[in-house]
Design goal:
The protein is an alpha+beta fold. It has a single domain (about 5-110), classed as PH-domain like, CATH 2.30.29. It has two helices and seven strands; from the N terminus they run βββαβββαβ. The strands form two sheets. The protein has a four-stranded mixed sheet, covered by helices on one side. The protein is globular. It starts with a strand and ends with a strand. Pfam families: DUF1508.
Length: about 110
């Protein structure tokens, strides 16, 4: 079975770097904002790895369409990753548990 991984890629639209955390099944469970420099993107991944195990770092939200999602925040309150949208609060909470368990040990793969 494959393992969870962070993928670093560069957008063709704006030339910024992004990361996404994929579960072992290949599903994207957390995505980043854009970073102008690759090292900043790598620092974002390090921050996710450090903050993921802490319950207090997760901000549970509901969007305008009534779907559920969460933000993972750094110690300073800055958002470092946003989840996909979920149809139920239970699914969102399971997504949080997945990030907590897989992010700290996820490998990093560079796509760009």
């Amino acid at each position: 079975m494959s393992q969870a991984k962070f993928e670093i890629y560069r957008s063709e639209k704006n030339s910024e770097y992004y990361f996404r955390l994929k579960a072992a099944n290949g599903k994207i469970i957390l995505s980043s904002e854009g970073y102008k420099a690759k090292y900043s993107c790598e620092n974002g991944i390090a921050s996710v790895k450090n903050n993921a195990p802490h319950d207090a770092r997760y901000d549970k939200k509901t969007n305008k369409a009534g779907q559920y999602y969460f933000n993972l925040k750094a110690g300073n309150g800055e958002i470092i990753g946003t989840s996909e949208s979920y149809t139920t609060a239970d699914s969102r909470d399971q997504g949080i548990e997945t990030v907590k368990s897989v992010a700290p040990d996820a490998v990093i793969e560079e796509l760009s």
